[in-house]
């Protein structure tokens, strides 16, 4: 806690942030899969102060996802295995088009597939839509029963997908990475070299499992699920710090951010933008406004003119 | 924060050929209109309104409509279920003359509401709507309370829908508030005919997480969540909803017309 307010307090900081040619009103991002299923839910987050909103990950065809329970609340965070339920890319892009009619706040469409060819097809479809950015979900831990290990597990797989998509997409490309790897920096470098324009880290941690001791069964119907929320923030912060030293492209730092101090921590770790997901569970979408206001106060107090001016942690700390 | 708890069924009551009430012994903190998520951890978890709660126990009342409700319907006393909640918004409890209109298996949560209304000194009139005498729910339970109950049966010799019964009452009486729960088309028809009366509706949307994080149950164009800001919504909110009575989203998130999507309401 900083208790002493420096005397040289500034007044003119702004939250405006440049990101891949876009001018964002705030560095706060709604990450994929948290709300974001409908135009109205994306819109509500944008109106509350998210500078960029991301759709729930879309596949080529409709998916109902896993049966319930798809979430379990634990004292140390939320475990989820929603299973990428979505109405299919055509329907998702219709929602994005409606969203676009209501606001100019940029929107990223997150997509998921199990092959470079399908990722490329999704990229073509999104490029023909009013979306601003394309995010590749290479890191879902909850569909390995169907699709095998998360794609972001291997630098080579990531490079192959990013290269295929880069060829097909006319939109800037964000690769969303998994923390569940031995060397996230190697995966990040592979994505950058294959043409990714930005990285998003991290997806959920684990996977983990919760067992009901009366029924003797896992609580999630999928058995296991990804952990999110405050518990994973230290892991996310380190992943972002490691990536920031290894790549030149901007990073969206996601994982356990609950307040402006956490957001500032992500910026110092090396994030350009900061995602707020699971914290919306208890904080509501008004959290975007609260975090924005308090982050602005932080910038003013420290005399940083904007979020990008927050000094990054030196490389020696990984 | 509401917790997940695993409880045995303490009691089962037969309400109609395809409706049963399951009771659990646990001091759940809940208000009328709120719901719980129930699972047997064998591959499904679904939302159910509380049909009663208090004195160290609570109950849900369910209609057998598909795979999961069939398993609940066939469950025996002592069978264990994982239950989390209570979740969502609840009815604001008025103390004046109030009208409650229920249809099908959305009637039972109004029973829990009546208990609270009576405790607050309100004078409730209940329109209990059903397809047939067979399907009528909670008639005797309402009779045991000091309130006025009117049953509306669609296939009686003199057919009467819950909406028509309610509108007649509204024409000839002064009420301070209206509470309604039931099939969405019934609710839509009711509110388009109820004048300036203040109302609250219990609405249903496809729920997965129940805690406001997955986005499955969001309502257009406000982007509010039926599981957090709902399932009980006040008039001022309902009036802004463009999807109410028109469409809802299914388990994948695709839009489907409301009348083609019936849950406990058939
Ligand atoms: C807030 C709320 C309160 C409810 N209260 C009651 C109640 O008190 N009693 C009762 O009998 N039923 C209630 N329902 C409906 C109940 O959840 C469904 O009947 C049940 O989920 C059906 O599951 P199934 O596997 O038997 O049938 P399925 O064949 O899976 O579904 C039958 C129909 O039920 C609805 N449904 C299925 N899954 C869900 C879901 N996850 N969320 C919402 N609707 C779903 C759909 O409209 C579907 O068409 C409530 C629903 C909501 C949202
Ligand atoms: C319920 C839920 C669903 C999610 N769905 C997706 C998804 O579809 N695609 C994706 O890339 N990430 C998904 N995530 C991961 C989040 O975008 C985010 O990376 C992760 O939760 C960590 O951030 P947080 O702690 O702020 O939630 C999901 C997370 C949750 C909690
Ligand atoms: S059910 Fe997940 S947000 Fe309402």
What can you see in these coordinates?
- The complex is a heterodimer of chains A (318) and B (266).
- In chain A, strand 15, helix 8 and strand 16 form a beta-alpha-beta unit.
- Chain A is of the alpha/beta class.
- In chain A, helix 3 packs parallel to helix 5, helix 5 packs parallel to helix 6 and helix 6 crosses helix 7.
- Chain A is built from 10 helices and 16 strands.
- Chain A has one domain: Aldolase class I (TIM Barrel, Alpha-Beta Barrel), CATH 3.20.20.70.
- An 8-stranded parallel barrel of chain A has the order 3-4-7-8-9-10-15-16, surrounded by 8 helices. A 4-stranded antiparallel sheet of chain A has the order 5-6-14-11, with no helix packed on it. Chain A has a two-stranded antiparallel sheet with strand order 1-2.
- Chain B has 266 residues and is of the alpha+beta class.
- Chain B folds into 3 domains: 83 residues, Translation factors (Elongation Factor Tu (Ef-tu), domain 3), CATH 2.40.30; 112 residues, Rossmann fold; 64 residues, no CATH class.
- Chain B contains 6 helices and 17 strands.
- In chain B, strands 1-7-4-5-6-3-2 form a 7-stranded antiparallel sheet. Chain B has a 6-stranded mixed sheet with strand order 10-9-8-11-12-15, sandwiched between helices.
- In chain B, strand 2 and strand 3 form a beta hairpin.
- The longest helix of chain B is centred in the middle third of the chain and has 12 residues.
- Chain B is globular, with a radius of gyration of 17 Å.
- The mean pLDDT of chain B is 94.
- At the A-B interface, helix 1, strand 5, strand 13 and helix 9 of A face strand 7, strand 13 and strand 14 of B.
**What is the CATH first-level class name of chain A?**
Alpha Beta
Q: Write out the strand line-up for the largest beta sheet of chain A, numbering strands in chain order.
A: 3-4-7-8-9-10-15-16
Largest β sheet strand count, sense and barrel closure of chain A: 8 strands, parallel, barrel
Q: Greatest interface and its residue counts?
A: A-B, 47 and 41 residues
* CATH third-tier fold name of the largest domain in chain B: Rossmann fold
Outline type of chain A: globular
Helix percent of chain A reads: 25-40%
Alpha carbon gap, first and last residue of chain B: 34 Å
CATH-wise, what's the superfamily of chain A?
Aldolase class I
**Count of extended strands of chain A:** 16
Number of helices of chain A: 10
């Amino acid at each position: 806690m900083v208790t002493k307010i420096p005397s040289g307090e500034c007044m003119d900081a702004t939250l405006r942030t440049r990101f891949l040619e876009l001018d964002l009103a705030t560095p706060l991002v709604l990450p994929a899969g948290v709300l974001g299923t409908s135009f109205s839910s994306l819109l509500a987050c944008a109106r509350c102060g998210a500078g960029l909103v991301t759709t729930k990950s879309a596949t080529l065809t409709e998916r109902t996802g896993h049966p319930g329970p798809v979430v379990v609340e634990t004292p140390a965070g939320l475990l989820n295995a929603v299973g990428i339920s979505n109405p299919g890319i055509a329907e998702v892009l219709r929602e994005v088009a409606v969203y676009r009619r209501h606001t100019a706040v940029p929107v990223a469409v997150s997509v998921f597939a199990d092959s470079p060819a399908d990722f490329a097809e999704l990229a073509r479809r999104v490029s023909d839509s009013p979306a601003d950015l394309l995010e590749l979900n290479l890191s879902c831990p909850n569909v390995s029963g169907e699709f095998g290990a998360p794609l972001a597990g291997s630098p080579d797989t990531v490079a192959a997908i990013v290269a295929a998509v880069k060829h097909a997409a006319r939109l800037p490309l964000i690769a969303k990475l998994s923390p569940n790897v031995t060397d996230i920096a190697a995966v990040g470098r592979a994505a950058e070299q294959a043409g990714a324009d930005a990285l998003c880290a991290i997806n959920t941690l684990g996977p983990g499992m919760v067992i009901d001791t009366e029924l003797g069964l896992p609580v999630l119907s999928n058995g296991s699920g990804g952990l999110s929320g405050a518990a994973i923030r230290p892991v996310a912060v380190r992943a972002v710090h490691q990536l920031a030293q290894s790549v030149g492209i901007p990073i969206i730092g996601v994982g356990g951010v609950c307040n402006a101090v956490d957001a500032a921590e992500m910026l110092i770790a090396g994030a350009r933008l900061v995602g707020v997901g699971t914290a919306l569970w208890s904080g509501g979408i008004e959290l975007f406004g609260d975090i924005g206001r308090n982050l602005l106060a932080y910038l003013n107090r420290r005399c940083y003119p904007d979020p990008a001016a927050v000094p990054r942690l030196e490389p020696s700390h990984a | 924060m509401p917790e997940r708890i695993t409880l045995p069924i303490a009691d089962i009551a037969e309400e109609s050929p395809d409706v049963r009430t399951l009771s659990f012994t646990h001091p759940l903190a809940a208000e009328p209109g709120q719901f719980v998520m129930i699972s047997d951890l064998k591959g499904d978890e679904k939302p159910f309104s509380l049909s009663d709660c208090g004195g160290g126990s609570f109950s849900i009342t369910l209609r057998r409509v598909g795979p999961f409700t069939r398993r609940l319907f066939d469950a025996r006393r002592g069978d264990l279920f994982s239950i989390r909640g209570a979740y969502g918004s609840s009815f604001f409890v008025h103390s004046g003359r109030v009208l409650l209109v229920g249809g099908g298996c959305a009637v039972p949560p109004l029973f829990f509401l009546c208990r609270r209304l009576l405790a607050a000194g309100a004078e409730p009139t209940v329109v209990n709507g059903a397809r047939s005498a067979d399907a009528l729910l909670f008639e005797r339970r309402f009779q045991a309370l000091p309130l006025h109950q009117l049953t509306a049966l669609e296939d009686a010799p003199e057919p009467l829908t819950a909406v028509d019964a309610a509108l007649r009452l509204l024409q000839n009486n002064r009420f301070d508030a209206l509470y309604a729960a039931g099939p969405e088309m019934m609710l839509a028809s009711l509110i388009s005919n109820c004048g300036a009366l203040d109302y609250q509706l219990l609405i249903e949307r496809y729920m997965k997480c129940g805690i406001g994080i997955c986005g499955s149950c969001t309502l257009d164009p406000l982007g509010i969540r039926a599981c957090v800001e709902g399932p009980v919504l006040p008039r001022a909110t309902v009036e802004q909803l463009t999807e109410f009575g028109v469409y809802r989203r299914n388990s994948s998130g695709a839009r489907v017309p409301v009348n083609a999507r019936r849950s406990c309401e058939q």
